[in-house]
Amino acid sequence: MDVRPDDLPDGLVIADGAGRVVCFNAAAVRITGRAREEALGSPLHTALPLEDLDGRRWWQLTDPYNGPAIRNGQPERNLLLPGGHEVLVAARYVRQRPRGPVERVVVTLRGTEARRRTERSHAELIATVAHELRSPLTSVKGFTATLLAKWERFTDDQKRLMLETVNADANRVTRLIAELLDISRIDSGRLEVRRQRLDMAAVVQRHVDAHVAAGRPASRFKTEIADELPDLWADPDKVDQVLANLLENAVRHGEGTVTIEVQPTSSPREPGGTGTAVTVSDEGPGIPEESMSRVFTRFWRGSRRGGTGLGLYIVKGIVEAHGGAITVERAPAGGARFRFILPVGAPAFLA
Fold this sequence. Notes:
This protein is α+β, with helices and mostly antiparallel strands. The protein has nine helices and twelve strands. Strand 3 (73-81) and strand 4 form a beta hairpin. 24% of the residues are buried.
């Protein structure tokens, strides 16, 4: 399929061997604010009057047509358009033969807004991680230093309590590191899914049994599982993460009965295919309507305090890595209702 210059998300400007602009795509028009008709046929330095951050004219500095013949372009950097508008610019010099004359200069333009949003997101992630790590690490350091310095002064019960606290805080740090690794893999598209045949009904029951064994009343949970479910190939560990997060949220932040439904459904990615839908709902206050669109974003905590706010972002990434989809809405009883769908999939060696 041919891709036209106007289909590209980044600005594209091409100048011929004489330095005249022969291509000025729609994104370049949007980024520079210059009309295409005005740019086409004009000298490159006129169509793109770029300056560096020190106010020097970029085309005079780089001199693509008369500079050293070994150069093949310019790496991306911040430059300024008239009016101080910042833009990311990269250039490639096209030669028919090594050290030959430049026959094309291909320039790409990108706005800086997306990069700034990414930088802000990274800064917020670092601040959140630093805050979340400080408390358990301070606790670990404090208790271990105290035990080392005054071991003989404590009873066995006191030592056990302090070591149990250290162990719990170490587990908290481990979970946070695991979340960061998951986010890195999700953001880079490298989250690996190891598919195996999965009995979703058994997985759900195992999670409910674990909550009951931890001391929560069995009457708090209600399961509704269809008699016949399609064969499902999914990553057991990743599905465990999804269910653990959704159930923990429902139990900790919801109220009343937590209902888990497992039903066959059409695949969200393959029309006519089949999949498995899992719904987790509670009877608590639910999620405010104005927050529904932000539930699966990083750092969303709603009105609750504590936690990193990364769990549902990771849940969404895991479900989508399986080719599935997840939604949230108000439950019939007034609480939150999360529903995720996993398509049938295929064994790892066939995927």
